[in-house]
UniProtKB/TrEMBL annotation:
GO biological process, one term: tricarboxylic acid cycle
Taxonomy of the source species: Eukaryota, Metazoa, Porifera, Demospongiae, Heteroscleromorpha
Matches recorded under PANTHER family: SUCCINATE--COA LIGASE [ADP_GDP-FORMING] SUBUNIT ALPHA, MITOCHONDRIAL (PTHR11117:SF2), SUCCINYL-COA LIGASE SUBUNIT ALPHA (PTHR11117)
Key words of the record: Ligase, Nucleotide-binding, Tricarboxylic acid cycle
Domain spans labelled CoA-binding: 2-98
Entry annotated with the keyword rRNA processing: no
Designated name of the protein: Succinate--CoA ligase [ADP-forming] subunit alpha
Organism (species): Geodia barretti (Barrett's horny sponge)
Keyword presence, Ligase: yes
Active site: H247
GO molecular function, one term: succinate-CoA ligase (ADP-forming) activity
A single cellular component GO annotation: succinate-CoA ligase complex (ADP-forming)
Length: 293
């Protein structure tokens, strides 16, 4: 499911401080990072990983199919297009506040190239005990519950909370906090429906955007085999229209994107919406007790 432990990973912007720390952490976890790319710095090594000037040169030497992008926002579009041209199948964009026009352009190119994009503004993804990319972490354990979150920090918090209650995860993904992201809840859940290791999904939503409403519309048309439990925060933003908090996507405009509206729509689609973290357990237990170790 998205993160094949045998797939080679290259990191664009590997010589940057954040990327270097991410590489060290991911290598320690066992992730198969094989190369890095920073124009003008080819020939260097970062934590033993060889650095190349271009993605093409890195792919020529190493069989990478996954790219992690950690470059300044204005450079993300070019970095992504370069990775698509080199045949990447999965692209994780950690950079936040990428210009929306650039994100739109790179997503069109990604569809043409057949590349799945996670982010921008994603903390990463982790398959417990198998591999991780980005800086996502916390207490994670193998299990059957996927965690999908617009907030990177809450990806970690929810996974840690579930683990502490004996509920392991099949995968945890920071979907991304920018206003436009590559893979939304609906698209990821459609992938997870084909994953035999996943029986349930916990999604964490915020004000702004229409990802939760899009998921609800899809579930009304075609119910999922997965048990879906949602937790949404930031309801206070509903009464502060036009004010942006935290992530670029956390903004209610024209009455759209309110937490009240999302909760109502999700419940109408049969999604269990938790009021507290403790309620997440109740929602998951409605599936079956085998989710608990």
């Amino acid at each position: 499911m998205l993160l094949d432990p045998k797939a080679g990973v290259l990191v664009q912007g590997i010589t940057g401080r954040e990327a270097s720390r991410m590489v060290e952490d991911s290598l320690a976890y066992g992730s198969n990072i094989v190369a890095g790319v920073t124009p003008g710095k080819g020939g260097q090594r970062v934590h033993g990983i060889p650095v190349y000037d271009t993605v093409a040169a890195a792919v020529e030497e190493h069989r990478a199919t996954i790219s992690v992008i950690s470059v300044p926002p204005p450079a993300v579009l070019d970095a992504a297009l370069e990775s698509f041209d080199a045949g990447m199948l999965l692209c994780l964009i950690m950079t936040e506040r990428v210009p929306q026009l650039d994100t739109s352009k790179l997503l069109v190119a990604a569809r043409r190239a057949g590349c799945t994009v996670i982010g921008p503004n994603s903390l990463g993804l982790i398959r417990p005990g198998i591999a991780k990319l980005g800086t996502v972490g916390g207490r994670v354990d193998n299990g059957k519950v996927a965690v999908l979150s617009r907030s990177g920090g809450m990806t970690t918090e929810i996974a840690s909370y579930l683990t502490s209650r004996g509920i392991g995860q099949s995968i945890a993904i920071g979907v991304g906090g920018d206003a436009i992201v590559g893979s939304n809840f609906t698209e990821l859940i459609e992938l997870l429906e084909a994953d035999p290791a996943t029986d349930a999904v916990v999604i964490y939503g915020e004000p702004g955007g229409a990802a939760e409403e899009q998921l609800a519309a899809r579930l009304k048309q075609k119910p999922s085999r997965l048990r879906i439990v949602a937790f949404l925060s930031g309801g206070f933003v509903d009464d502060l229209e036009g004010v942006r908090f935290g992530h670029a996507g956390v903004i209610v405009e024209g009455g759209r994107g309110s937490v009240r509206g999302k909760v109502k729509t999700l419940r109408e689609a049969g999604v269990f919406v938790a009021e507290t973290f403790e309620d997440l357990l109740q929602g998951l237990m409605l599936v079956h007790s085998s989710l608990v170790h």
